[in-house]
Specification:
Elements lengths: L6 H14 L13 E6 L10 H19 L3 E3 L3 E2 L4 H10 L3 H18 L10 E2 L3 H16 L3 E11 L4 E3 L4 E2 L2 E2 L7 E10 L5 H6 L9 H11 L2 E9 L6 E6 L10 E4 L4 H9 L1 H11 L9 E9 L7 E7 L10 E4 L5 H10 L7 E2 L20 E2 L10 H14 L3 E6 L5 E2 L1 E2 L9 E4 L4 E3 L26 H4 E3 L6 E4 L3 E2 L2 H4 L2 H4 L11 H7 L4 E5 L5 H15 L12 E4 L2 E7 L5 E2 L5 E3 L2 E3 L5 E9 L10 H8 L1 H9 L8 E2 L2 H22 L9 H19 L3 H20 L5 H15 L4 H11 L20 E8 L2 E9 L4 H10 L1 H7 L4 E7 L3 E6 L1
Parallel strand pairs: 1-2, 1-26, 3-4, 12-14, 26-27, 28-33, 34-37
Antiparallel strand pairs: 5-6, 5-9, 7-8, 9-19, 10-11, 10-18, 12-15, 13-14, 16-17, 20-25, 21-22, 21-24, 23-24, 28-29, 28-32, 30-31, 31-32, 34-35, 36-37
Helix pairs in contact: 1-23, 2-18, 3-4, 8-9, 17-18, 18-19, 19-23, 20-21, 20-22, 21-22, 22-23
The structure holds one RNA strand of 85 nucleotides.
Length: 837
Amino acid sequence: MSSRYNHKVVEKKWQDLWSKLKVFETIKDVNKKKYYVLEMFPYPSGKIHMGHVRNYTLGDVVARYKKMKGYNVLHPMGWDAFGLPAENAALVEKKHPEKWTYQNIKTMKNQLLRMGLSLDWKREIATCHPEYYKHEQKFFIDMFNAGLAYKKEAEVNWDPVDKTVLANEQVIDGRGWRSGAVVEKKKLSQWFLKISKYSDELLSDLDSLKNWPNKVKIMQSNWIGKSVGSEIDFKVSGQDTSITVFTTRPDTIFGATFLAISTEHELTKKILKQNNDLNNFIKECEGINSEKIKKGFKTNMYVDHPFINGKKLPIFVANFVLQEYGLGAIFGCPAHDQRDLDFANEYNIEIIPVVKPINIDEKDLKITNEAFTQDGIIINSNFLNGLKIEEAKDKIIKEIEIKNIGRKKINFKLRDWGVSRQRFWGCPIPIIYREDGKILAVEDDELPVKLPEIKNFTESSSALRNISEWKETKCKKTGMKAYRETDTFDTFFESSWYYFRYCNSRLKEPFERSDIDYWLPVDQYIGGIEHAILHLLYSRFFTKALRDLNYFNLDEPFKGLFTQGMVTHITYKNNSGEWVEPRDIERVGNKFIDKNGSNVETGKIEKMSKSKRNVVDPNDIIDSYGADTARWFMLSDSPPERDLQWTDTGIAASYKFINKLYELVEKFKNYETKNPNDSRTIEALKKIINEVSNTIEAFQFNKSVAKIYEFVNTLSDGLSKYRLSKENFKWSLAKLSLILQPFIPHISEEIWSNVGDNSLCINQEWPVEEIKSELNLKLAIQINGKTKEIIEIDSNLEKDGVMETIKRNERVKKNLLGKEIVREIYVPGKIVNLVVK
RNA sequence: GGGAGUAUGGCGGAACUGGUAGACGCGCCGGAUUCAAAAUCCGGUCACUUCGGUGGUGUGGGUUCGAUUCCCUCUACUCCUACCA
């Protein structure tokens, strides 16, 4: 594609000028209203991908728009720089992971600079820098002292090949994501943060997040998983002990016919000591999917039913009872729980219905293979009979509490956050273990605990536990020998507070309270939906924890959240079933061929990924078409929250548009038409300008793009059909450059420099146009709800006048021929509907 | 199993609180320009039609003067989550 517009020169020119004039460097100004725009910071993996381009383009539109609207905009960027890929790369290159990381940061920063983003680079951070992570070590110590961080044995996902713990999300179908080895469960002593303390607050505060997508709030709410029920103690028959269960259906207590405990329950452990059969049973269970096959081991123990004298329930050890949820013990009511029913049928356990559907007679109620779990009326339940489920729950809980055999109880699915990772490239956990067995926080003045310098990075140096000179230390106070904690933090630790650090990223302290008061919360946070739970929940927790540690007074970090869709691309497969990269594809008629000339089949449209080989490199696009073209395409067509399909024709269209804008400026330079006014065009343009504002406010940038096309089309028509005056042409171009500024800022400045003053376009005020009320209104005329005619009428006409005008219209007359008007509906400015018979 | 969402031309998608369905872009068709092509520019483009109209927003129904929009039914697809007692 040829063009006269040299994007390379023009884009570089404006980027340099913005930088030279420090246009995007922000200073706190309490007299100015602030706006904090933040996009999720990238992991420095090597180069940016289209997902980044989309994410940062969206954020840049908001940042530039808000700046022009007069806000003091904070729009920072940084690097989520700790993580496993750096270690893997370091092993290959035998260099410190730091080298690889900083190299990538350099490359990616250059790429971001070429996109022309309105970022304040003065605030840039890299989380692997000791001046960054020392603060989170301090936070951790504060949490430790406040009882918010603690250590306990926990089961982890252990990759036997990579010899490391994996996070849950790194285990795919039971195998390590990198090694492919079957992941083992292993008990390790781990550090935890007490996020569960905030379960209730994390849940209820979701309501206050009005500018969050509902979807994300529902996901978090499900994850937190609050359920209201009760605990009930069952006395073990003939013994002094009892087993406590958690249930959300205490109303079905009279239908209880067995009790089941998990394979890891304390009682199970006790029985295990004497019973080898149970041991065999547990081993047997390991290979079984308990969701499909329910297995149980009948112990010779029973519990007494708390409300039926003399009734005893057998105790089973069952594979479907989870130790992690509730108390690892349940009472089984087969009639009203599918799992219990499946289990009961397998082991011939009695089934007693205690809830009946409202419109079915008790006699006709049969439960065989399907449990009844809906609303109904209680039966077979002594003093609960005749009550509705909710009433029965209240009553039975009262009884339980009176008898002192249980209590109302709220349970959460949310578990405490395990933050220990057996990795090198992470933030060291600032703890020492003294030889006398004491676990101590590292003293403040010894922070940061830095990672060791390693010249030759090998497998053995890739874990801190192997580096004895680093590991061995002394307790400063007592002089006793000690060794350091060799685990590092989960990298979600760094991303849980980076948005605070941006307030003043070079400060000696983590931040200044007055800065937090001014800048936070983030007004608009933008990122992928994949962080809906983990990152966003951890950040919310961190904010609340730091608040309680008196760092500031803030409940929620992100006031507005926007989750963008993915960038997708069609996939191609050759005859051998291998994926083929788009750049190796050629189109011949309706068919596609690869480099070797063989046919290629098109497959599904999928998220751009290396494995599917359907990736388009932003670098190539910016080289050939420029940043404005890439940005414009990212914003066109698809609503930001939906997936965006990458197409070559789409990028070509964007390129065409950028060139058209340039040609418009060239045209202006030589434009000499002297015909004066065409108010019709100018009025139309003013209307469009306001519509662009509305669509930006609503985060519907695809519509902004459509409106801008309309602007240019209207302007072109104004020039060719109505011979717009040069002054009006100039006015139009100036306005155009303003509304283009958030989207494609380089060409916007270029236009402005030809028609505006000497200042920068980005420093102008966003245009707000006054619309003249139109003299003539378009009115649609419907007969029986079907539009027959559109006419223009004087906007001052009253209903009667309007009706008269309409009835004089030829088409309307024709349609009314031989009919009788039954009703006349008039919606001013919109329609007239004549109902006829 | 549970939860959330989506469905409009050949394609991506518009249509404000119910009021002109298909804006805008792509693609396609025709024309101009060109030795020719690319690029560019202009015009057309939901379907059927006897050129009067008629039908049309996944399916079937309902509310209404009027439904892409609200309510119910069904279907298809996407995403999340998963023994949570």
